[in-house]
Amino acid sequence: MLRALLARLFGGSAAAPPEEDPVEYNGYRIRPTPFPRLGQYQTAGVIEKEIGGEVKEHRFVRAETHSSHEEAVAYSIVKAKQIIDEQGDRIFG
């Protein structure tokens, strides 16, 4: 109960955000994970790739916020693709 009250006061959510379908891109799997923050949705996601039989993971959160969950999902995918194109496997090092 206290958790729900604090979540409402500070823009959070007591319920877990919905899980989005992963997007495949150049051998990587992108999972957008935007989350509510102060009445907006924060750009965030996870980039995964199997390397040597092990799944490597890179989590990112960016400063951009969006008025809807759908916009945040779309932009999180765009941002993940940009990270992949610029850094490649170095994101796991």
How would you characterize the overall build of this protein?
- The protein is α+β, with helices and mostly antiparallel strands and 93 residues long.
- The chain has a single domain, classed as Double Stranded RNA Binding Domain (2-Layer Sandwich).
- 29% of the residues lie in helices and 39% in strands.
- It contains two helices and five strands, in the order αβββββα.
- The chain has helices at residues 2-9, 69-87, and strands spanning 23-25, 28-32, 35-37, 40-51, 54-66.
- Strands 1, 2, 3, 4 and 5 form a five-stranded antiparallel beta sheet that branches.
- A hairpin with a 2-residue loop joins strand 3 and strand 4 (40-51).
- It is elongated and about 40 Å long.
Note the main attributes of this structure.
93 residues, single chain, Double Stranded RNA Binding Domain, alpha+beta, 5-stranded antiparallel beta sheet, elongated, 29% helix
According to CATH, the fold-level topology is: Double Stranded RNA Binding Domain
Q: Biggest sheet, in brief?
A: 5 strands, antiparallel
Estimated radius of gyration: 15 Å
CATH secondary-structure class: Alpha Beta
Can you describe this structure in just a few lines?
By secondary structure, this protein is α+β, with helices and mostly antiparallel strands.
